[in-house]
Amino acid sequence: MVLFEEEITRLHRIRKTVMQMLKDRNYLVGDFEINVTKEQFRNKYGDNMKREDLQLNKTKRNDSSDQIYVFFPEEAKVGVKTMKTYTNRMKSENVFRAILVVQQNLTPFARTCISEISSKFHLEVFQEAELLVNIKEHVLVPEQQVLTTEEKKTLLERYTVKETQIQEALMLPGSHEGFLFQLLIPCYKTGQFVYETMFVRNEYLTHGIRHILKNT
Fold first, then answer.
1. What is the pLDDT of residues 147-174, one digit of tens each?
2. Over 80: is that where the pLDDT of 139 sits?
3. How far is CA 83 from the centre of its chain?
């Protein structure tokens, strides 16, 4: 089936954002892959392209054994059967990370499936609408940097607190991992940056912050 022009434009934009996301996470992605024009995209996949044709597999820049799949399910609402197809493929190829780009959402059973396999496979789900633009490029989104171990130590010493106390203050069980971030917020009056620090539990990371994480 030949896709409408709007749909081809949509898929082209989504693929570009995915490529930018992978590069930010230190996967091997060339600028030429990010800068593919819509015409080049159309020539490669055709006017009757299927979403599943956009599937990607990338490796980490510094570790070729660390791979990630990006799946683009064909069905509007993804069910357990599709999830099992993906996880079986990942298992056979020793790939333990994947991103699912879905048109609508997952069925309740598919969500349960992801929860049940989370100890072995790390799957992230994005709706297509979330990837039409790269949120990092928005002028109102400040740059977000994960604090290094040394920066975290300095911060905690400055305020004489322990990381567990931050978790407790946010009513987070101590067993949960999280990240300390510094936000670089520009001050338009002085032209300087204001630094704000925050703690975010893994499960509650926004998609914008996830873009810049090396590992989540």
1. 677 877 887 787 787 766 665 554 443 3
2. no
3. 18
In the three-class reduction of DSSP (H, G, I as helix; E, B as strand; rest coil), residue 34 is classed as helix
Task: Quickly state the pLDDT bin for 191 (edges 50, 70, 90).
Answer: low
Q: 52 with 72: CB under 8 angstroms? A: yes
pLDDT tens digits along 113-127: 888 888 899 999 999
- pTM for the full model? 0.68
DSSP 8-state code for residue 93: T
Please spell the DSSP secondary structure of 125-145, one letter per residue: EEEGGGGSS-GGGSTTS-EEE
Residues 6+ apart with CB under 8 A from 175: none
Give the integer Cα–Cα distance in Å for 58 and 67: 6
Distance CA 138, CA 56 (A): 26
Burial 58-86 (b: 16+ CB within 10 A, else e): bebeeeeebbbbbbbbeeeebebebbeeb
Q: Find the angle CA(171)-CA(174)-CA(175) to the nearest 5 degrees.
A: 130
Rg, the chain, Cα only: 19
Identify the residue whose tokens are 């090396």. Answer: 214
Burial 99-138 (b: 16+ CB within 10 A, else e): bbbbeeebbeebeebbeebeeebebbbbebeebeebbbee
